[in-house]
Amino acid sequence: MILRVRDPRADINTPPEGKRVRRLETLAGTRMGLLWSQHASSEKFWPVFERVAEQALHPSEVHRLYKDSTWNVATPDQVSGFAQKVDFVLVGVGG
C-alpha cells in the first residue's frame, strides 16, 4: 500500500489569474443581477430579499438568473450571458 502525504500549507495566498473588473462607485442607477440557486431553505427569504435590494439599491435594470438545480452549477453560457447584462450580482446560495 502506498500512502501519499500532501503539504497542507498549499499556496493559497496567490489570487487566481483572471480578468480584472472595474469598481463601481455607486450601485444606484446600475444594472443589478440576482443569481439564486433556488435552495429549499431560501424559498421564503429570497423573494423578500429581492424586493428589499431593489428598493434600497435603486438599480436601473434588474436581471435574474435562477439556476435549474440547486446542486448543479450554472452553465458557462448562462453565466457569460448574464454577466453581459449586469454591472453587479447578488448571489443567493441557500442555507
Distance N to C terminus: 40 Å
Bin the strand percentage.
15-25%
Mean pLDDT: 88
- Poorly predicted ranges (pLDDT <50, ≥5 residues)? none
Structural class: alpha/beta
Would you mind describing this structure in some detail?
The protein has 95 residues and is of the alpha/beta class. It has a domain at 31-92. The protein contains 2 helices and 3 strands; from the N terminus they run βαβαβ. The chain has helices at 45-57, 76-85; strands at 31-36, 61-66, 88-92. A 3-stranded parallel beta sheet has the order 2-1-3, sandwiched between helices. Strand 1 (31-36), helix 1 (45-57) and strand 2 (61-66) form a beta-alpha-beta unit. The model has no long low-confidence stretch (mean pLDDT 88).
Compact overview of the structure:
This protein has 95 residues and is α/β, with parallel strands linked by helices. The protein is built from two helices and three strands, in the order βαβαβ.
